[in-house]
């Protein structure tokens, strides 16, 4: 779908939503609608679309070259960030529209207050924008698949090089460089060893790989605007009884959750498929998170595969499916692929408890 078609589709939702206009401020939403990726920092960026489909991409003049190259038919409105905050440019773009849908989980308080003080009525519209972004078209699906092929290449480098004595810090730095070398933006490897792998969001540090350690290697990056996100596991030497049993349980949970990623199910159905397996084995560890999350122009975007979500799965949705089991003393096991509702695996790469140094 072209960017113009996306703007038109968004315009088509405004009347039923009772909105005069919508303001997108998330980087991922701006890029989805216009093809422009900016660096927001303290400056205002936004896409305003009025009922009828007119509007503008608003950005500081600092970004004039990249804005000029953006493949959008919307007006490109630049402002001087040294002299103003961009809101007067936004007001001109809104052109009399008063009831404005905003991404309430992103628009900051100061800007929301300024809009309200200027007489605009702000209405939550994150779900409206995500209604479009959630279902990916063929080009977007191919983009996620491409990102995964680059991550798979980095896994091959990781397994060829990883050895006892390597530090988490060094291994993660090498993986981040390998991703960047292939054109990856925001490379985010998260590779943890031993007991540290029992903390899903632990920070890689000086810990070195020791014989008998489990390795949880979560690798993600953005390529051409779309993310890939995968996790594989390894063991330094012959797997312990705990590691092998934990891996077998997580693999079963993974298989069941992937199979549940289909039309007719809801997000919580996918979570239930993995949770019933993981939670049946408390002797091996704990189930600390849901089954996964949608992925696209953001690495984590709704809907989320959690027990509280009744969101129906739709054609074109892509989710990470990533069951895991965690023990603070022995480590963790997690398996993750990017799954198109169907299901179809967009990140096909062998699922095995790889033995290092064997």
Q: Could you explain the architecture of this structure?
A:
- Residues 144-341 form the Peptidase M24 domain.
- The protein has 358 residues and is α/β, with parallel strands linked by helices.
- It folds into two domains: 3-133, Creatinase/prolidase N-terminal domain (Creatine Amidinohydrolase, Chain A, domain 1, 3-Layer(aba) Sandwich), CATH 3.40.350; 138-356, Alpha-Beta Complex (Creatine Amidinohydrolase).
- The chain is 34% helix and 23% strand.
- It has helices at 3-17, 27-34, 64-69, 87-94, 109-117, 126-133, 138-161, 168-181, 241-259, 267-278, and strands at residues 21-24, 46-50, 55-60, 75-79, 99-102, 121-124, 190-193, 214-223, 226-236, 292-294, 301-305, 318-321, 324-327, 331-334, 337-340, 344-345, 353-356.
- The strands form five sheets. A six-stranded mixed sheet has the order 4-3-2-1-5-6, with helices on both faces. Strands 7-8-9-17 form a four-stranded mixed sheet, with helices on both faces.
- The model has no long low-confidence stretch (mean pLDDT 96).
